Amino acid sequence: MSRGDILIADDTPANLRLLSNMLSDQGYKVRAVINGQMALTAVRAAPPDLILLDIRMPGMSGYEVCEALKADPSTQDIPVIFISALDEIHDKVKAFTVGGVDYVTKPFQFEEVLARVQTHLALRNLQRQLQDEILARDKLIGELDAYAHTVAHDLKNPLTVLVGYSELLEKRYAQLPPEQLEHNLHAIATGARRMTNIINELLLLASVREMNEVQMSPLNMAHIVGEVQTRLEDMLARAEAQLEMPSSWPVALGYGPWVEEIWANYVSNAVKYGGVPPHIRLGATPRDGQVYFWVQDNGAGIPPEQLGKLFTPFERLNQVHAEGHGLGLSIVHRIAEKLGGAVEVHSTPGAGSVFGFLLPAAPNS
Question: Which residue ranges make up each domain of the chain?
């Protein structure tokens, strides 16, 4: 395995050969060019991890090459070490001014060059790690902000109902007729169940975040879908939903409890946003070493401008026509990615939607 990709630009063939051979012997992938324009072309075609750059070259000087690299956001972070016979102070100052990270004077000792290469590659790797951590932190902060707003809103609605009916019972229990008491208690129980569902999904989201290694195994999809039907039995019955599914399923790899949550989310959304009554088809299609599982509804469909937002953290499918919390599809997205798969949605306004997820196919399935 290569220790790093290094580009050398020098118009002296002997220097190119010497540096290329020595660095290659140390396990580095080395590319060599003989002028500045070729260096820019090579960098833009495949950015290296580090550049060793001569100053005096025909056409573009090393200074001009470095300035061009630093002016381009896609290449400005590549470390440039100048290697030159110019040893005046003003030459070195200019090299650092245009963006170089180090300067080696010819004739050079290879041990010195190697030490500087190793140092700046290590610094570059640390810089990349820091950038990745900053991006991850910023993403997490943004998600936590959206998460807080969503949870506060979604818990507030059922909590308001629960408190309202509880206060009514507390003040007028003796005066209320039995049917009104039953109605109030049912509303309290429904609100409590909604809050419990939200909390359970928050706990699931946390577990998906925290679990670094997932035990993948062949899935008994018929059993998993059967468990989902049992969980959603009341919802399916109330909506008079019609459910179609294959008699057998291709075998995929995954983590059963999480895959059950994907199905539960997709099927419950198909009930909420499907036709009246909902007609829901479940299926699976092998696809290039993976299995594509899908849920098709007979609802109104989703406008094209909304499709890209569906799996964004904490977006609701439809905040007007159906109640729901904005955690579900975000969780589905995270689970699928964690299991080495992906999510898909296809929809035509007026013709329903198909929500799907990909999982790795089991070997020899």
Answer: 5-108, 215-365
The residues of the chain scoring below 70 in pLDDT are: 1-2, 140, 142-154, 201-202, 204-212, 312-327, 365
Distance CA 11, CA 56 (A): 8
- Give the pair of three-digit tokens for residue 119: 């140092």
Tokens (6 digits) for 231: 């969980």
List Cβ neighbours of 44 (8 Å cut-off, separation of 6 or more): 74, 75
Class of domain 215-365: alpha beta
**Does 5-108 carry CATH code 3.50.30.50?**
no
Instruction: Find, among 280, 293, 299, the residue nearest to 253 by Cα.
Output: 293
For 30, 35, 36, 324, 334, the CA distances from 85, given in Å and listed in that order, are 22, 16, 17, 70, 55
Using alpha carbons, select from 1, 2, 23 the residue that is nearest to residue 10. 23
78 vs 316: CA distance, rounded Å = 42
Report the pLDDT value the prediction gives residue 231, as an integer from 0 to 100: 86
- The reply to whether 215-365 shares the fold of 5-108 is no
Considering the entire predicted model, what is its pTM? 0.54
